[in-house]
Every structure is written in structure tokens, then in C-alpha cells.
Amino acid sequence: MIGSLGFDMSLVQRSRGGDALWHSAYVFGGTARLADGSVVDFSKRNDVIASFIVKPEGMPAWTADYAQLWKRAVAAEKRADAQEARLFELTIPRALPRKHWVTLGRHVARTLADHGMVVQVGIHCPLASDGDINPHIHFMATMREIVDGEFARKKARHWNKIFHGNAKAFRQKMAEILNEFCRIAGVDYRVDPRSNAERGLPPAEIRLPHWHILHYKRTGQKTRAMEQRDEERAARANVARLEAECRQLERELEAARTDASAEEIASAARPQVARALPQPRAIRPDQNAAFNREPLRLVEFPMDRPKIQFAPAPIGLKEEVHSRLARNSKRLRACASLRVFVAADNPNQARNVDRAIQYCHSAVTKALVRQFANAPSRHQAAEELQALDLLEALTELDAVAWSDVELSRFENDLDALIIPYGLLWQAKASKHLRGLDRGAHQNPTI
User: Fold this and answer.
1) What Rg, from alpha-carbon coordinates, does the chain have?
2) What is the spatial distance between Cα 59 and Cα 149, in angstroms, rounded to a whole number?
3) Which 3 state secondary structure label does DSSP give 33?
4) Which of 29, 206, 246, 350 could in theory staple to 48 by disulfide, Cβ–Cβ 3.0 to 4.6 A?
């Protein structure tokens, strides 16, 4: 059995309000007192299966205590925008028995501890959106080496070579470790580290930043991104329900065909007996009967015919999309910002194109990103966007991609690109895009 690899990497950053003590309490399901004196309490959580620390040989005793470890790690960081810890999250395959979860967590953490990191591990198993279990492992790794019983004065910059600019190779390494572990455990399961797009699968559900959930808990109102996520969940559930009904109908149809074939064989084997047919009776027609007012129409059910798929032709598509954009200046600005974000003269063009394609859901938006990446580089104001032939390459797509659903996803992508903490969001962005700073998109939240 082959599945997707669920693996994420991130950092605890002070500039974004991150706190290593808060994350540590979340991982082991306990309490912690933060630097400002407030106390966080996760002791009421019932989904924490196990929690432990994996450390290199010869480490001092205080590294085995969660509070002491991260208090010293936080105190070692002096900058206001310091990075306090490195975070990893690995999804455990549901096919792997529970008795192997702790062993897997220690095995993966040992690969990080071999480089000198002290790693806190927490195994969680909440319920997923489909009602089944969602087992996963949290890893928190220190950012400095421990020298003479204390954290070093300088960060271990050589560790950055393992992660920075090497995300695909690191994911590949995690997939190899998990596949080898499943093979040794006798579990018939393998993970594929490639993206859904590379595997020819539909895009996975977008993972929203934590501030969306906090906003919903504080105000009781969902953000636009949360509403879009819920709509996609409902659509996926509806598709799954329809597919299940189709499979059930196919099974019933196959059973009916089998019964009909058996009946034909049995009737052919029985001797033919001549019987007198009954004489038709004269019946006075009822003038109010429905079958007398309307002629009988026979409906032919296509038993063995292949399914016919209808796809709207892309007639007037450019005018349709242009008219949709013209009704919303915010989406026009999103298109202009996206063009600058993936322009050829952007020093981070390759990374920006990959992130934009992963962030967006519509095939229309992804094709637009590829066209912008190959177009001549220049800042484009929103009012000039109508003059561009944006859809020259897009019309080469399959006509099925130009359905109403795809156009709706295209509009949702443009709205989500510039929401707070979206891919193109800037805290102090100017409304005039001629002076847009391309260097402002260093840390988009995906």
C-alpha cells in the first residue's frame, strides 16, 4: 500500500510571537510559565500518547527536564527576532500498529540527535476530520550546541545546511526512514515524498496558520480561508458519497445482469407449452386519467453505453475572466502582485513559483503563474492589467478546466493570496503597486 508522506518543518520565531516554552507544554501536554509570567495549561488534553527527550551522549542532566531545557534555550537567545527552536511534524501511517509509535519517534529523533541536537518528542493521536484517528509525532530540536554543560554562545550555523534549501532531500530522507521502519516491522505500507501534483493527484487540503483558529475562538466568526476550507471539505465529502453510491449501483446492476442471464438460461431449458391468450376486454376510458391526457413516453436506460462527458467550450473565456476581474479591484491588484512575485528578475523566482503553485488550488491560477514566470519582467499596475493578454497560454488547457467550479476557485485563489498572512500579504503594503518591493515576500505563510 502506498500513501503520501505527511511531514512539515517550521521554526519557533519571536518575530511571529512564537515561544519555545509554549510549544514544549503543547507537545508534552502539561503546563509552563512563560517569560511574561503567564501560565499555559495543556494538561486536560487526552490525545497525548507519549512524551520524551532524545539527546546525544554526554549531555548534562538538566537536558532531560522540559522546563530547564527550554528555559535555558530561550535565555541563550538575545535578539528580539531570534529563532528559539526548530519544529518538525511527522504523520504516522494508520496501518502502523500503536505499539511501534514510540519506537518510530525515538528512531527519527536519533537521526537529529546524532548531529548534536537535543530533541523533545511528543506523540499525539486526535481524531481526524473523517472520524478516524490521526496519529502524528511532534519534534522540537534545539538551535545551539551544548558545550561545557551550557548552550554555546554562537548558534550551530552548520546545521542550517541540513535544512535550508534542502527541503526535498530532507523529505526524501524521512520517507526512506519511515519505509525502512515499516519493512522491518512487517507492515505493508510505503510513503511517497512527492507532491500530489507530481503524483497526478488532486491538491491536498490547505493547512491554515494557527491564527485563523485563534480568531475563530475569539470572535466566533470564520475567516475567508476557513470558509473556503470548509467548502472544500463539504465538496470532497459529497464527491466521496456520490462515488460510493455509484459503486453500490454498479454492484446492484451487475447482480441484476447475473440474475437475468440465469433466468434466460433456465427459460431456454424449459419446454415450450402453448397457451391460449386472453381476449382483450373493452374498457371505457376515463377522460380524467393522466395517461389519456398525455402520450406515453419511453425512457431508455443506457445499460452498456459508455459515459458521455460534457465539457464547456472556452468561447469568450477571455472576456468572461476579464469581466470578473474588472468587478473587483482587489483581485486585479492580486494579479499584479502575483506577476511581480514570480517575475524572472526576482532573485527567489524558482522558490516563489513552487510556493505559488502549491498555495493555489485552481488550474487557471497555476497556469497564470507559469505564464507570468515566462513573461518579460516589469511592475504592472492594476489598471494596466486589462491590456495584457493574460489568457493566451491558458486557453491551451483542457476545456474541462474552464468549468464554473474552476473559475470560482480562481477567484478564491486571488482573494486568499492577499488576505492577512497570505502568500502575497504585506503588513505595510502600498496600494500603488508600481513601487512594490519584491524583497518583502521572504516568509510567506503557506
Assistant:
1) 30
2) 7
3) strand
4) 29
| Cα–Cα distance, 416 to 53 (Å, whole number) | 39
> Up-side HSE of residue 185: CA atoms within 13 Å toward CB?
22
The three cell numbers of residue 279 are 381476449
Write down how long the chain is.
446
Cα distance between residue 71 and residue 68, in whole Å: 5
- The phi and psi torsions of 100 (rounded to 5 degrees) equal -100, -5
pLDDT digits (tens, 9 = 90+) for 312-328: 444 455 566 666 666 67
* Cell numbers for 198: 507530481
Q: Using CA atoms, how far apart are residues 76 and 146, in angstroms rounded to an integer? A: 11
Q: Are 82 and 16 in contact (CB under 8 A)?
A: no
Contact 112, 87 (CB under 8 A): no
Q: Which of 21, 179, 189 is nearest to 107 (CA)?
A: 179
Nearest to 90 by CA among 22, 176, 17, 205: 176
Distance CA 75, CA 154 (A): 13
d(CA 77, CA 143): 10
Q: Are 377 and 296 in contact (CB under 8 A)?
A: no
Distance CA 364, CA 404 (A): 11
Give the C-alpha separation, 374 to 393, whole Å: 11
Nearest to 359 by CA among 223, 242, 149, 207: 207
Three-state secondary-structure class, residue 127: strand
β-strand 83-91 against 136-141: which pairing, if any? antiparallel
CA distance 176 to 178: 6
At 346-355, the pLDDT tens digits run: 888 888 888 8
Dihedrals phi, psi of 274, to nearest 5 degrees: -75, 130
pTM: 0.50
Residue 225 backbone phi and psi in degrees, to 5: -65, -40
CB burial readout 13-35, b (16+ within 10 A) else e? ebeeebbbbbbbbbbbbbebeee
Strands, DSSP E only, in 55-171?
A: 83-91, 119-124, 136-141, 146-147, 150-151
H-only helix segments in 307-425 = 317-326, 329-341, 349-359, 363-374, 404-417
pLDDT, one tens digit per residue, over 373-408 is 877 655 555 445 544 445 454 555 555 556 667 777
Three-state DSSP state, 110: helix
- Angle in degrees, 0-180, between the axes of helices 210-219 and 224-269, rounded to the nearest 10: 100
Smallest CA-to-CA distance from 442 within 346, 375, 372 is with 346
Residue 266 vs residue 2, higher pLDDT: 2
Tell me the backbone φ, ψ of residue 432, rounded to 5 degrees. Answer: -95, 110
